[in-house]
Amino acid sequence: MATKKAAGLKVTLVKSTIGSKKDQIATVNALGLKKVGDSSIQPDNAQTRGKINKVCHLVEAVEVKA
Q: Which range of residues forms the domain containing residue 29?
């Protein structure tokens, strides 16, 4: 039986972007996050995982199943 792949990733901003580099702030905005505590559901693909990896010290990601 095949295992189900995660439908998406729930990304939450857990640390402020104050003092971060401009490209990191832009990446957080591209993930749809504005304030600490904001969450968004993003597709589980290589582009999203790359964005999360770039700002892994600012965000928390959890797999969401459909």
A: 8-64
Residue 54 has pLDDT above 90, yes or no: yes
Amino acid at 62: V
**Domain contains 3:** no
Give 34's Cβ-side CA count (13 Å radius).
Answer: 0
CA count, 13 A, side-chain hemisphere, 13 = 19
Domain count of the fold of the chain:
1
Whether the Cβ atoms of residue 36 and residue 1 lie closer than 8 Å to each other: no
pTM of the model: 0.88
Residue 9: how many other CB atoms lie within 10 Å = 21
